[in-house]
């Protein structure tokens, strides 16, 4: 297909307009705690771990961009300066100690520079600080159950609510947590492997039958946060969202009082069925 110069210009202008619209749109639609149309960045952070994940992501983006541009520059230099026409008599050099040492050492130093913050982030994710609150999240086909063993012992199911916004993320009973508190999440699967994932808090951990996995987050912002089961777990895998409401301490205490009564006779309440609630 041949295009005239005018058509080409028009097409380029079209791409430019689309690109700017995309950038502006991404910023305009970005909403805390949930995905946004045309989103191309990580979700806005609401926890110290996610702050560091975003920092590390940007750090790596800089490094990879510099390396890519450097290699591109070398390639262009080779193509332009050392082709048969501009360099008819090639050099017969086979060794250069300085360059060989440099191209071994420099990548090692770059990898060390990446390894240090990488391990720091891994340890931050794995070392669970002293928890203010423990919640057990059990993945089931196809919904989640949340147990609060610390706060009067209750457990409830959290199912997708078709009529709630945001679409496919709203649930009937949200997990509720206090703001700026260390929340330990213990997770397991009741039937198959699920995965508890919450992008704004920077956590994603498999929920495996017969095993209790642990992770943690500290929500630093109030509001609603949404995640999804992130391990293919059957036909309704896409329909078992995770919704977390972050509230202040007073609201949390009030919610606990209400939840204890509301879920006391819940068949999902393992504390009630085992008699643990009476202890
Ligand atoms: Cu699942």
What are the salient characteristics of this protein?
single chain, 279 residues, alpha+beta, five-stranded mixed beta sheet, three-stranded mixed beta sheet, 5 helices, elongated, disordered C terminus, binds copper (II) ion
Mean pLDDT: 89
Largest beta sheet, briefly? 5 strands, mixed
Instruction: Give helix % range.
Output: 25-40%
What percent of residues are in strands?
15-25%
Query: Helical region count?
Result: 5
The strand order across the widest sheet is 3-2-1-5-8
Find the structural class using helix and strand composition.
alpha+beta
The dominant shape is elongated
Bound molecules: copper (II) ion
The end-to-end distance, rounded to whole angstroms, is: 79 Å
Topology:
Layout: H1 5-29, H2 48-81, H3 97-126, E1 133-140, E2 143-148, E3 154-158, E4 175-178, E5 182-189, E6 194-198, E7 203-207, E8 213-218, E9 223-228, E10 241-247, H4 249-262, H5 270-274
Parallel strand pairs: 1-5, 4-10
Antiparallel strand pairs: 1-2, 2-3, 5-8, 6-7, 9-10
The structure holds copper (II) ion.
Describe the structure.
The structure is a single chain. The protein is of the alpha+beta class. It has helices spanning 5-29, 48-81, 97-126, 249-262, 270-274, and strands at residues 133-140, 143-148, 154-158, 175-178, 182-189, 194-198, 203-207, 213-218, 223-228, 241-247. The strands form three sheets. A five-stranded mixed sheet has the order 3-2-1-5-8. The protein has a three-stranded mixed sheet with strand order 4-10-9. Strands 6-7 form a two-stranded antiparallel sheet. The structure holds copper (II) ion.
């Amino acid at each position: 297909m041949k295009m005239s110069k005018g058509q080409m210009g028009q097409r380029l202008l079209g791409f430019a307009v689309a690109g700017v619209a995309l950038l502006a749109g991404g910023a305009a639609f970005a909403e805390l705690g949930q995905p946004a149309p045309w989103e191309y960045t990580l979700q806005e952070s609401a926890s110290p771990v996610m702050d560091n994940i975003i920092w590390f992501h940007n750090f790596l983006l800089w490094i990879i961009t510099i390396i890519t541009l450097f290699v591109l520059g070398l390639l262009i230099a080779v193509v332009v300066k050392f082709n048969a026409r501009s360099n008819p008599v090639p050099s017969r050099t086979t060794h250069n100690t300085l360059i060989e040492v440099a191209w071994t050492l420099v990548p090692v130093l770059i990898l060390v520079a990446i390894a240090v913050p990488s391990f720091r982030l891994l340890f931050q994710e794995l070392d669970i600080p002293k928890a203010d609150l423990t919640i057990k999240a059990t993945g089931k086909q196809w919904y989640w159950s949340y147990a609060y063993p610390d706060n009067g012992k209750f457990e409830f199911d959290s199912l997708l609510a078709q009529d709630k916004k945001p679409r496919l993320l709203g649930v009937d009973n949200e997990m509720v947590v206090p703001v700026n508190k260390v929340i330990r999440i213990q997770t397991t699967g009741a039937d198959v492997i699920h995965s508890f994932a919450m992008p704004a808090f920077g956590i994603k951990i498999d929920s495996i039958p017969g095993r209790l996995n642990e992770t943690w987050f500290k929500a630093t912002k109030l509001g609603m946060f949404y995640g999804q089961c992130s391990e293919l777990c059957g036909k309704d895998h896409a329909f078992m969202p995770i919704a977390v409401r972050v509230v202040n301490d007073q609201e949390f205490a009030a919610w606990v009082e209400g939840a204890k009564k509301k879920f006391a006779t819940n068949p999902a309440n393992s504390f009630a069925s085992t008699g643990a609630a009476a202890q």
